[in-house]
Design brief:
By secondary structure, the chain is of the alpha/beta class. Helices cover 38% and strands 27% of the residues. The longest helix is centred in the last third of the chain and has 31 residues. The chain is globular and about 60 Å long.
């Protein structure tokens, strides 16, 4: 429940075929005056479920990039204070109670995420606590960064919540592999468009560095088989990204 002394909040959510998670995500935003939901062509029950929430306004927009999709959702929000969630993120009762007591004397707030693959929470490695800027003033914020790793570009001081939200990252390991392969190609496209180049050695440097960080430095080994899986595939994804970029660099120089 929002404090009577706080200004009204809008929420921004983008989605595509999220029937498994959308009810929990939107259900955690019922305290917001308005939820701007931007769908990119769902063909499951996502929009049917979303239509059952009275504070949700449904909009459609063909997907091009996460940055443009989220900035469009942000543009539809009528209030100054924004909560921005992915459709697989859920605010807990503790989050909502803490938000109601925030002084709102900064430009935004980061929230840590408790991330899951299926039913298993990933408690260590580079996924935890995974702070994300999810509450912010509209007037001093916009989405930027790189696709698909978009982030809020904000002007002003940022605070941090003590409680953490839920993030149902992937239903299983196969979904992780499929989605991240797609994301890797998106990242390579973005790097190439910005003129980024690389060499034959960089893929190996990033691969080894990411594995050591995820598995040993951030104690991913404490998550058992899931921790090893993530460390291996995060490292392998980094290798693939820079190998593809190296190949494109060679092709451009040979042209």
């Amino acid at each position: 429940m929002q404090s009577a002394t706080q200004p009204p909040f809008s929420a921004a959510v983008i989605c595509y075929n999220e029937e498994k998670h959308i009810a929990n995500s939107l259900g955690s935003l019922t305290w917001c005056q308005q939820v701007a939901l931007v769908d990119s062509g769902s063909n499951d029950r996502t929009l049917e479920i979303a239509a059952g929430f009275p504070n949700v306004e449904i909009h459609t927009r063909p997907f091009d990039t996460f940055i443009k999709q989220k900035n469009y959702a942000l543009s539809l929000c009528r209030n100054e204070w924004i909560v921005s969630l992915d459709a697989d993120e859920v605010l807990t009762d503790e989050n909502i109670a803490e938000i109601a007591e925030l002084p709102l004397d900064v430009a935004g707030y980061r929230i840590g995420r408790r991330s899951f693959i299926g039913d298993q929470e990933i408690r260590h490695g580079t996924w935890s606590p995974d702070y994300q800027l999810r509450i912010f003033r509209k007037s001093c914020s916009q989405w930027g960064g790189t696709n698909p790793h978009e982030s809020i570009q904000i002007h002003g001081e940022v605070g941090r919540l003590k409680s953490r939200m839920l993030h149902y990252s992937y239903d299983d390991f196969d979904q992780f592999i499929a989605r991240n392969t797609k994301y890797i190609h998106m990242m390579v496209d973005h790097l190439e468009q910005t003129g980024r180049t690389t060499n034959a050695a960089e893929p190996y440097v990033h691969c080894v560095g990411n594995f050591l960080k995820a598995y040993f430095l951030r104690k991913g080994f404490l998550d058992g088989a899931a921790g090893l899986f993530l460390a291996r595939h995060i490292a392998g994804g980094s290798f693939l990204k820079y190998r593809l970029l190296a190949e494109r660099t060679r092709e451009r120089r040979a042209a």
